[in-house]
Design goal:
The protein has 317 residues and is mostly helical. The chain has one domain. Helix content is 74%, strand content 1%. The protein is built from 13 helices and 2 strands; from the N terminus they run E-E-H-H-H-H-H-H-H-H-H-H-H-H-H. Strands 1-2 form a two-stranded antiparallel ribbon. Helix 11 runs antiparallel to helix 12.
Length: 317
């Protein structure tokens, strides 16, 4: 038979069993301590997770990380200029830039060559003399002045608005495969037509551009203006300010690509119908690169590459 537990006297003189002693105040204190330790251990992980969640949310809500864009702009940045206002500002910037560059180089030539006052009226009020346009040095200087003035005007117009530069110029980063693909297509778009036309027809580059390049002494203003400053200014204007204004309308991204290509061709009407049509196709490629990469960096590289290949072709001719 099982033996019953022997009675044990407690500290107050009462008689109890071993089980009653184990369930006394000391045992309860130990049990409560274990429970408290377990709660502290669990709460430690919960607090750590809470701190991690707060930290992650802080990173994602930081001003340096843009929230998702809607119809081409981000609401937290402020809305860019509406379409008609951006179009009017773009036309004004382009007109002021061209006339300002023409005026600056005309005064520069006036001071160097000591033209008479009669020739001054002809330069300022009438169409520029053909001999002036055929001087490569002045054309290169005009390109540099136009590029610098245009970049300054686009910058000032954007600063006067609500949205920052990123809303107009995009937030995307250049991707190696995507950039290489577009740059290869840009090279083929220039090399193949020139090679086919020269091989099939034997037609050399336009005499106008050939004379400009040969008369440019020194030549670095022409290279600087056409390869660096002109692509920066024109892409900031067409694929930056105007593209963003058109993208937030009913036209969307595809309509913005088409419209900016058309405006880009109209801005180069001086090259004739064939030249403007070719530039329109180039504008479509530039707009597609702007839309797919979400930045004007890739269109700037493509534009600079085209002008570089064009000048290289003139040098080879």
């Amino acid at each position: 038979m099982a033996q019953a537990p022997s009675p044990v006297s407690s500290s107050d003189g009462s008689v109890g069993s071993v089980r009653s002693v184990r369930q006394g105040p000391a045992c309860g204190t130990v049990t409560q301590g274990v429970i408290v330790l377990r709660l502290m251990w669990i709460s430690r992980f919960r607090l750590t997770g809470l701190r991690y969640t707060v930290a992650v949310n802080a990173v994602h809500t930081d001003a340096t990380v843009p929230p998702p864009s809607i119809n081409g702009y981000t609401p937290d940045w402020g809305k860019p200029y509406p379409f008609w206002k951006s179009l009017g500002l773009g036309i004004a910037i382009y007109a002021v830039t061209l006339y300002g560059a023409w005026l600056a180089t005309s005064f520069l030539q006036l001071g160097i060559t000591w033209l008479s006052l009669q020739d001054l009226d002809k330069i300022l009020m009438g169409p520029p003399d053909e001999t002036l346009l055929r001087q490569g040095l002045w054309y290169g200087l005009a390109s540099c002045v136009a590029g610098i003035l245009g970049i300054f005007l686009v910058r000032e117009v954007i600063l006067q608005g609500e949205a920052p530069y990123r809303a107009y110029f995009g937030t995307g980063r250049l991707k190696l495969r995507q950039s290489a693909t577009f740059l290869l297509l840009a090279t083929l778009l220039v090399v193949l037509p020139q090679g086919i036309l020269r091989t099939a027809t034997g037609i050399p580059p336009p005499t106008f551009w050939t004379d400009i390049y040969r008369s440019a002494r020194p030549q670095y203003p022409l290279w600087l203006g056409l390869v660096v400053l002109a692509p920066l200014f024109e892409e900031m204007l067409f694929r930056g300010l105007l593209f963003t204004g058109a993208q937030q309308t009913w036209m969307g991204a595809k309509g913005a690509v088409l419209l900016t290509a058309l405006l880009f061709a109209i801005g180069h009407y001086q090259y004739g119908v064939i030249g403007a049509s070719y530039i329109f196709v180039q504008g479509l490629f530039l707009g597609a690169a702007r839309h797919r990469s979400d930045t004007i960096k890739l269109p700037i590289l493509m534009h600079a590459l085209w002008n570089l290949l064009f000048l290289a072709n003139l040098a080879a001719a």
